[in-house]
Amino acid sequence: MNLRAQIKEVMATELMLEVSVDEIGDDSPLFGPNGIGLDSVDALQLVVAIEKHFKLKISDQDKAREILANVDSIAKAIEEAGLV
Amino acid sequence: MDLIRRILITGANGTLGHAMARYFLERDNLCHVFLGVRERRELAEVVVTDFPGRAFLCPLEITSQKAWTEALEGITAQSGLLNVLINNAGYHDDALLASMSLSQWSGVLDSNLNAVFLGCQAAMKPMLQQRWGRIINVASLSALHSPAGQTNYAAAKAGVLGLTRSLAKECARLGITVNAICPGHIEGALPKSWSEEQIKIVKRETPMRRFAKPEEIAAVVFFLASADASYMTGSSIKLDGALV
Predict the structure, then answer these.
(1) Model confidence pLDDT, tens digit, residues B66-111
(2) DSSP H or E segment with residue B103
(3) CA atoms within 13 A on the CB side of B170
(4) Which residue segment(s) compose the domain that B32 sits in?
(5) Residue in B closest to A41 by C-alpha
(6) Is residue B141 part of a domain?
(7) Residue B42 is part of a domain; what is its CATH number?
């Protein structure tokens, strides 16, 4: 399974999403009205899940906003940190 | 979550903290209790001696964010991720508002409210990692029935109840419950300034005609910390013998 698919699986499992993995596009916004509808509590869970599954620590809030924009940006952050 | 439950109790050298530590240790062989203490630690040290390998001193200045981080790191390194936080430490420094100094006000707010914020924030990380956690905040009857001379303490404890309700909503999906208790008068923890006569009067005013035993408060905390209390969150439980 490629990294982006793994991220979607982790999101679906850890956040108990009501949308299926197939409905999450690589560049679909995760937050906001045009996104898949995550909220700030989901963001908190997602940060913990990313650290747990991919060993990427996100401690800076501004950085978190950028990284958690969509699946693609999460994958890039993991790749850039050399964690794959 | 593994079998061992790790419980941190702040103010563990006080009457109630001490009773809670013993209550957990005597009833749950699989728990490790970390006794949050500052300078005074004689009672806590007795617990450590009585329960070797299961009770540990945890030096903690509750008003310091750094101290909380270090304490949680220490618990993780020694035993594993924290499961239960009991924010019990606090004190009151009573005065009429007209004559209350700013340091009396802010000292009580720091120890009774800001410290709860710091503790909850520090504990959330290990609890989130496990998707399981129990936070129990020890408020006071003063939050609901605020006597004259306690504007600082009553405001801080009422703040704890608000924090509890709000944080419970934030944590509801995360497997973490957040509840508060509001104990009334407790045997062994009555204000030192009370005379024998005052004690008699307050006892008479209490419909149960007695004060709580520390173990009676600990029993409720023990339940709130258990897996059985899984749907109870954001609650404030009054434990006052029907005084209010």
Answers:
(1) 999 999 999 999 999 999 999 999 999 999 999 999 999 999 999 9
(2) helix B102-109
(3) 16
(4) 6-239
(5) B170
(6) yes
(7) 3.40.50.720
Residue carrying structure tokens 């006052």: B240
Can you tell me the ipTM of this complex? 0.74
Which amino acid is present at B228? D
The C-alpha atoms of residue A42 and residue B165 are separated, in whole angstroms, by: 19
Residue B1 lies in a domain: no
Instruction: Assess if residue B122 is contained within a domain.
Output: yes
Distance CA B79, CA B54 (A): 10
Residues β-bridged to residue B135: B85, B178
Does residue B244 lie in a domain region? no
Closest partner CB to B170 (pick from A16, A41, A52): A41
pTM, two decimal places: 0.91
Long-range Cβ contacts of A14-23 (<8 Å, 24+ apart): A14/A45, A14/A46, A14/A48, A14/A49, A15/A42, A15/A45, A15/A46, A15/A49, A16/B173
Q: Which chain A residues are closer than 8 Å to B125 by Cβ?
A: 48
The total domain count for chain B is 1
Output phi, psi for B87, to 5 deg: -85, 95
Kindly list the residues from chain A whose CB atom is less than 8 angstroms away from the CB atom of residue B129: 48, 52
| Whole-number Å distance between alpha carbons of B86 and B135 | 6
